[in-house]
Design a protein that fits this description.
The chain has a 3-stranded antiparallel sheet, covered by helices on one side. Strands 1-4 form a two-stranded antiparallel ribbon. It contains 5 helices and 5 strands; from the N terminus they run βββββααααα. The chain folds into 2 domains: 4-43, no CATH class; 46-133. Helices cover 51% and strands 16% of the residues. By secondary structure, the protein is α+β, with helices and mostly antiparallel strands.
Length: 134
């Protein structure tokens, strides 16, 4: 993740390589210069009890890699399999673009980017579930 810039709000927390870092009183920017650093904004974290949909399940696997709770190589197959399953259901152009980006990121061991691409699918998934309940 060379050159990643995090913009943090006041008191926002972020997990970087297993360490929780909390921002101070003012907005700030952090430049992450270490390649392949594992980073997760805690406001974006999915809690285990909220892993109740297909997209959330795949996101959670990527999140476990970022938090150091899952081995990247072991998670790779699960992530790729999950992305493939999602691609069979989410067939519109925008979803395919996000899924392709997520797949590419997993192959390149860029789990933050994979999670970012997968999280973009959450609103679409929510709309699909809402429509099916109506």
């Amino acid at each position: 993740m060379t050159g990643l810039v995090l913009k943090l709000g006041p008191h926002e927390r972020v997990l970087i390589n297993g360490a929780v870092i909390e921002n101070g009183e003012k907005r700030s920017r952090l430049a992450i210069m270490t390649p392949n650093a594992n980073i997760l904004r805690l406001r974006d974290a999915i809690h285990p009890e909220a892993v109740n949909t297909p997209v959330r399940r795949v996101c959670y696997i990527a999140q476990l890699v970022l938090t150091g709770d899952a081995d990247a190589e072991e998670a790779k197959l699960q992530l790729l399999r999950g992305i493939e399953q999602l691609s069979q259901v989410l067939t519109d152009y925008d979803s395919r673009t996000q899924l392709t980006a997520a797949s590419r990121a997993v192959m390149e061991n860029q789990h933050y980017q994979a999670l970012k691409s997968l999280r973009a699918l959450l609103p679409r998934e929510e709309r699909l579930f809402a429509a099916s309940r109506a």
